[in-house]
Design a protein that fits this description.
Strand content: under 5%
Oligomer: single chain
CATH architecture of one domain: Orthogonal Bundle
Number of helices: 6
Order of helices and strands: HHHHHH
Number of strands: 0
Mean pLDDT: 80
Helix content: 55-70%
Shape: globular
Structural class: mainly alpha
Radius of gyration: 25 Å
Largest sheet: none
CATH class of one domain: Mainly Alpha
Amino acid sequence: MRSPNRARPVHNRPWASLIAIATFIFYGGLSAIPSRADFMNGKVLAGLCASDVDWESGGCVGYIVGAADAFDHRHLYSTGGSDDGKYCIPDSATREDIVGLVVKSLDENSDKLDNLALFLVSNTFIDAFNCNADLKYPLE
């Protein structure tokens, strides 16, 4: 019989090891990798857009439409904000128009696909809709 004051061996508490491992991974992971939003370049976006797999082509549409929304608001604030600012992308432009425009630009500028997808998409809108050229990203 075991003495009541004697501690249990650690191997009888497997959850304690799991908690220690999870804590180490969580806290170590938070400080180990810098947070950046430049994970997608033009090659990756062009690949998603050319895919026959639904979730990949959906990723293409979602990325472009999200970038278009963010770009248009950035344009609004760069031209005067809510007082005098103007959106760049016309109200008449549909989701299909915007995605088709970007896909065409990616195809025509295949030598630029090493650049960030955000830069390529934004520059496409600036060129196509005569937006504020001050927002144009330099491409390599």
